[in-house]
Amino acid sequence: MFVPISDNNPLRHLPFQYVTVALIVVNVFVYVVFVSGLFADALETTAYTFGLIPAVFNDYRELPAQYAVVPESFTLLTYQFVHGGFLHLASNMLFLWVFGDNVEDAMGHWRFLTFYLLCGVAAALVHDFAQPQSVAPLVGASGAVSGVIAAYLMLHPNVKVWVLVLWRVPLRLKAAWVLGFWVVLQVFSVLTAAENESVAWWAHIGGLAAGAVLVVFMRRRGVPLFDRGLVTAVPPSRS
Questions:
Q1: C-alpha 121: how far from chain center
Q2: What's the confidence (pLDDT) of residue 236?
Q3: I need a surface site. Which of 98, 130, 206, 239 has the fewest CB within 10 A?
Q4: Mean pLDDT throughout 205-215?
Q5: CATH superfamily of 2-218
Q6: Long-range CB contacts (within 8 A, 24+) of 37-45
Q7: Cβ atoms of residues 92 and 84 within 8 Å
């Protein structure tokens, strides 16, 4: 498995990726305060209150009164900021940190925020369509981050990314290989997932599809797709 560490891809339009960092801060804050157990043991309450529950969203079930804090439609957004554990949070935030800055750079701050949230909403709707009577809360930023991954792959497939192979071996590969492998893994997982699978693979697919479509329309004018016009270093000629 490839674990991304960093990419050699400087910002071209923005001085700093404020929205990417803000999203990470908000996700970490929600985890520490509501999920981690440091202040209160509230994982189940938080998941059922702010997670998207397809059976409730589709009116097959009613949410108990103690969990019905926000309108069910709002959970299309709130579920994106709740994570079920530290590794769940860390993996999503790592991918967002490595790849979000350049997608934000290609769109601008506010457009990127809209893009991120829309990818998360699309991911939830696809998950809801695939499992309309599920009573398990959908939580996590994976759907939105999947959209970021798709956008990065559309924008910068030829950029080199440092990854850890099998969590140990550092390697520098093109983003097309790293993220392409990740996309294939999601499709394979959807096709082979067990009935009671705890990972919402369809949400990942929904986020990927939304990101691939939205980046075409939401990138800045003049920002190319697929690294068109990318200038790479050419070794000097030897006489």
A1: 11
A2: 47
A3: 239
A4: 97
A5: Rhomboid-like (1.20.1540.10)
A6: 43/84
A7: no
Q: Read off the pLDDT of residues 118-173 as tens digits, 9 standing for 90 and up.
A: 999 999 999 999 999 999 999 999 999 999 999 999 999 999 999 998 778 899 99
Pick the more confident residue, 79 or 197.
79
Residue 41 pLDDT: 62
Residue 145 · residue 55 · CB < 8 Å: no
Note whether 205 and 190 are within 8 A (CB). yes
Task: Give yes or no for a contact between 67 and 115, defined as CB atoms under 8 angstroms apart.
Answer: no
What is the domain partition of the chain in residue ranges?
2-218
pTM, two decimals, is 0.92
3-state secondary structure 27-81: HHHHHHHHHCCCCCCCHHHHHHHHCECHHHHCCCCCCCCCCCCCCHHHHHHHHHH
What one-character DSSP code corresponds to residue 152?
Answer: H
Instruction: Identify the pLDDT of residue 199.
Output: 87
List the structure tokens of 230.
Answer: 């990318």
Distance CA 213, CA 111 (A): 14
Report how far Cα 92 is from the mean position of its chain's Cα atoms.
6
How far is 23 from 96, CA to CA, in rounded Å?
9
Place of tokens 């497939």: 157
CA distances from residue 194 to 165, 188, 189, 190 in whole angstroms, order as listed:
26, 12, 9, 9
Q: Which residue do the tokens 């798709």 mark?
A: 150
Write down the mean pLDDT value for the chain: 91
Asked if residues 162 and 3 have their Cβ atoms less than 8 Å apart, the reply is no
